[in-house]
Amino acid sequence: MSLLPFLKRAPNADDTPNTALVSFLKDYSIEVMPRTAEKIADFRELLPAGTRVYIAHIEGTPIGDMVATASRLAADGYRVMPHFPARIIKDKATLADWIARYQGEADVNQALLLAGGVDAPHGVFESSMQLLDTGLFGDFERLHVAGHPEGNRDIDPDGSDQNVMDALRWKQRFADSTDAQMALATQFAFEAAPLIRWADALKDAGITIPIHIGIAGPAKLQTLIKFAIACGVGPSLKVLQKRAMDVTKLLLPYEPTEVLNSLAAHKAAHPDFNITHVHFFPLGGIKTNANWAIENGGASAIPAAQS
């Protein structure tokens, strides 16, 4: 089923397309898990062909389920980007096996490398830098690593950003020395101004890796607050808490319109802004998020055959 008839809405007096937002949403990506993907009968009814789909690898998910999901999505014409969480990978042999299975069964050539959300490593790896250092991703066309606009207490327990910035400088040097296209895929946040300040600060620090900004898709407010607390989202959590205090908004589903409009307007005014793409976390459901993107003009700008 083609989405093209739905991606362009006929304008009228009450529905003028936001051209800045439409441009900002081009080639957006979205995240799924095997267990949530199973509930979708046909992704082609929801996502434009060529959309980059991250596959989140949660601790305890069998690698077979991950590869099967990747194979299904690749067969449907999507650019598949599985997570490689360092702390749940036992050793280099396990990593090599995962890569071989993804490449052999789903022709995967993109990956998101991150430390992962477990406290104690299952084996020899504890950071994405160690995964990159193995050399096993040498023939991948695209490699993404994590970004933390609000810091990360697991990496910097003192609340500073010293260790995070040291890691980003290492990754910048790696990006400069590899043929793979790299990007920072960030944790989700709810307020544009801090994101803009963070992105500008990275550029000032010499970090030129493009940023794919994490955005929470439409969801119930209670759901977002639960995920925000669980994921360690800090300052921007106050945006949700303030909304929860407004009785007129409490029962309405949250939509990312305000934060994305602000980022899109900034991008339109500053074309060299280093936030280049939007990455959705469909916390309220894949269908809900995909439909919101369609209604707001979001479409994949790159054919499936490209990266």
Automatic annotation (TrEMBL):
**Recorded GO MF terms:** oxidoreductase activity
Q: Which SUPFAM superfamilies match?
A: FAD-linked oxidoreductase
Q: Which UniProt keywords apply?
A: Oxidoreductase
Among InterPro entries, the record links this protein to: FAD-linked_oxidoreductase-like
Q: Which Gene3D superfamilies match?
A: 3.20.20.220
From what superkingdom does this record's organism come?
A: Bacteria
Q: Does the keyword Oxidoreductase apply?
A: yes
UniProt-recorded name of the protein: Methylenetetrahydrofolate reductase
Which species is the source of this protein?
A: Yoonia rhodophyticola
